[in-house]
Design a protein that fits this description.
270 residues; mainly alpha; Serine Threonine Protein Phosphatase 5, Tetratricopeptide repeat; TPR-like_helical_dom_sf; lipoprotein
Amino acid sequence: MIKTAQEEGSPYYVGAGKIMQAMILAHATDMLGNIPYSEAYQGGANFTPKYDKQEDIYKVVNQLCDEGAVEMAKPASANFRPFYSTNPSESGDILYKGDPAKWERLAYSLKARQAQHLIKKASYDPNAVLALCAKGFKTSADDAQIQFQVAAAPLAGTTNIFGPTRNNFGTSAFSTNIVKYLNGTTFAGVVDPRFGVIVPNTSTGASPGAGTPTGTNLTPGSTTVTDVYGGWYARDLGYYEAITYHEPEVHRGRGRLPGQGQRQGIGFAA
């Protein structure tokens, strides 16, 4: 997408592509550590690209965000292709419906998240994180939420891949272990506030999850029991939260960050 947009002259698509690539790389390195990048994207020319250091991937993430923000600051008239369209069906920027300013704020919010991951490093600078937060999301209206949609021709497969309509998990169930961690069994009397959200609170009994009673949270159109479809993340038409305003705001609103006498917020694990 970035290559095509550069060739035709659509800077908003270039910017969105770079910011999305930055987000994907950030997720990948945070989960896996060192990952291929500098020798990647070569296809059959190189099936064994070298692994780049995580610190170098973080630099790439920051560079892509900066470059993406620059593209998003350009005028709409500079774009060959409309950034968002609803005719004949919704296309283009389905995340922010053609608002480049929100993409800019997304880039800075992502940079803030990655900078906050370095809390235990000597280079960590809480003031720099706050400065990035100030250029990031302003309200919940800026949340980067991927919204699932009812399938309508020519679109298909637009409901949640984890949802009951696509029925990819009709024979699955949560493990007993995770349910017991959440419902106060493993840690006696300590019920995780996410119980009933991640997994349904009907996951009960001696062996909740795998042993959820027959007839509970049935897969549509079948008698296969699964509690997976009772969780928040399995909503057909829900949304996936990539980054939200509340993530950095936990600290920005109080004027200090972890390392300055305040507890860490969700999403800022280091």
